[in-house]
UniProtKB/TrEMBL annotation:
Residues 1-20 form the signal peptide. It comes from the Bacteria. Residues 348-474 form the 5'-Nucleotidase C-terminal domain. Residues 37-255 form the Calcineurin-like phosphoesterase domain. Pfam families: 5_nucleotid_C, Metallophos. Keywords: Hydrolase, Nucleotide-binding, Signal. This is 5'-nucleotidase C-terminal domain-containing protein. Belongs to the 5'-nucleotidase family. Coiled coil: none annotated. The lineage of its organism: Bacteria, Pseudomonadati, Bacteroidota, Flavobacteriia, Flavobacteriales.
Length: 513
């Protein structure tokens, strides 16, 4: 490891509660140039407009925060730590015959003058073609030390299209800042992404080796280097252990705010959907090489104004969304439910265990057939919000949860096939084929039960399924042609089950508190 430039590099770190970690040596020199930087950090942002009825979030509000800081601190930078192109309800809309697939997010981020972004795992939900379009539309820089593009010519860096050339996504990015007297410093930012979303066109290098490699290269050209990562908190901790001079990691992936210290490294993650941002203040002494960091979590609420330029871009896209929603539901912002505890819409949980949100969806599916079914099933991969839902729910939220919609079908199915379906879903734990259930449970012996009674192989059960499941995509043998499917009823668009989201809204209105 090349550490020569850090022989006199000491880091003072503040937590959000301003507890100082004293450096081992402090040798201030009178007249030394001191440069103050502000890093505004976002991560895991899928919504461009405020959510929860406008209570929190909203990228125009974030722009106001950044612009307000920059008025007093010119060395202010805006960073995105991954997961912003997908999933979102807006991304499923078609404009000029083509799904947006994150186009709206790039448009808004361009208007915000982002400085740097890295890949999250959800960026690779997009097809190779669509991701390349988003990269080419970006007016900000992308960076990644471990993500590469698998092409016909081999494994290469992803590229962004500039006016006259294609520019490779680099392992790290460097920035120049200066004090009031014109004294300059250079800092570097490297990035790595967890390999949780394998795609044929994506190659993931080792997180830790590439973080260490990128740091070593960047520090040769920089006064200090920070991380911009999209990995688990445990992985961030390991990165910090392996790069002990690393002062700060701005991370994503967990969806809730975290501030942890590992050695001299502060690891910070903001809340998803811009419910909060982290504002990091970095004060660097050019003579002593002493870096002082203060990290503050800033809630993004309805008390914060919106930046007008960005708000116009946000409104352009939300108007398109409203036009689309009003063709399906009359009052998109009507409050329909107030859950006693947050509803768990996170991807990992809905693809690996029964959640309260999965139970609510499947309960609503049964309601769409006046509860004249024995059970209900939906694939966990249909739940796309990847967030915790707290506070009042409005109709629009249900469309955010299930942006792809679809109908609820009623199936008369043999118990033998039903058990096979349930076993397959269980085996696919961790994938979109994992099944969320209503009235179906498993006992300690691994036996499947409906209403507490073992499923009988010869018996025919009536089960509500999401229509996607009967297409044989997640569960290859579950199709209308399977002899275990005795009867299939597909509701028309005017029936409650004609759109699974309408069914949920209708059910929740009966439960509104």
């Amino acid at each position: 490891m090349k550490r020569a430039l850090l022989a006199s590099f000491f880091i003072g770190l503040f937590s959000a509660s301003c507890t100082l970690l004293e450096p081992t040596v402090v040798d201030p020199i009178k007249g030394a140039g001191v440069v103050t930087l502000k890093f505004v950090q976002l991560n895991d942002v899928y919504e461009i407009a405020p959510i929860n009825g406008g209570e929190y979030g909203g990228l125009a509000r974030v722009a106001h925060i950044r612009d307000s800081i920059k008025q007093d601190f010119p060395n202010t930078y805006l960073f995105m730590a991954g997961d912003f192109l997908n999933p979102s309800l807006l991304g499923t809309l078609e404009v000029d015959g083509e799904k947006l697939n994150g186009k709206q997010m790039i448009d808004v981020m361009n208007s915000m003058d982002f400085d740097l972004a890295t890949f999250g795992n959800h960026e690779f939900d997009l097809s190779e073609k669509d991701l390349q379009k988003r990269l080419n539309e970006s007016k900000f820089t992308w960076t990644s030390a471990n993500v590469r593009h698998v092409t016909e010519n081999g494994v290469e860096p992803f590229t962004t299209k500039w006016e006259f050339s294609n520019v490779p996504v680099s392992d790290y990015s460097t920035f120049t800042a200066m004090d009031a007297d014109g004294n300059q410093l250079r800092f570097g930012v490297f990035s790595v992404t967890l390999p949780s979303n394998p795609q044929p066109y994506v190659y993931y290098g080792d997180i830790f080796q590439n973080a260490e490699r990128a740091y070593d290269i960047a520090i040769e050209k920089s006064d200090f280097v920070v991380g911009l990562t999209h990995v688990s908190i445990n992985d961030d901790i390991e990165i910090a252990k392996r790069n002990q001079e690393l002062p700060l990691i701005m991370g994503g992936h967990e969806h809730f705010n975290i501030l942890e210290r590992q050695g001299r490294t502060m690891i910070a993650k903001a809340d998803a959907n811009a419910k909060s941002v982290y504002v990091h203040t970095l004060i660097f002494n050019l003579r002593t090489k002493y870096l002082h960091i203060n990290s503050e979590l800033v809630p993004v609420t309805d008390k914060i104004p919106s930046e007008a330029k960005v708000e116009r871009v946000v409104n352009k896209w939300t108007e398109k969304l409203d036009e689309s929603l009003q063709n399906v539901v009359e009052k998109p912002d009507e409050v329909i439910y107030n859950p006693a505890i947050p509803l768990d819409g996170r991807d990992a949980e809905n693809r690996s265990q029964q959640t309260n949100l999965g139970g609510l969806i499947t309960r609503s599916m049964a309601y769409s057939f006046q509860d004249k079914v024995d059970a209900a099933l939906v694939n966990g991969g249909s739940i796309r919000i990847d967030d915790m839902l707290a506070g009042q729910l409005v109709s629009r939220d249900i469309f955010r949860i299930l942006p792809f919609g679809g109908s609820v079908v009623k199936v008369d199915i043999k118990g033998s096939l039903l058990k096979e379906v349930l076993n397959f879903g269980k085996q696919k734990k961790g994938s979109g084929a994992y099944l969320q259930r209503y009235k179906i449970s498993e006992n300690n012996s691994g036996e499947w039960l409906i209403d507490g009674k073992p499923i009988a192989a010869a018996k025919v059960y009536t089960v509500a399924f999401s229509d996607y499941l009967l297409k044989g995509l997640d569960i290859p043998f579950l199709t209308e042609k399977n002899p275990g499917v005795i009867k299939l009823y597909i509701p028309n668009e005017n029936e409650l089950g004609g759109d699974i989201r309408k069914a949920i809204i209708a059910y929740l209105k009966t439960q509104k508190k």
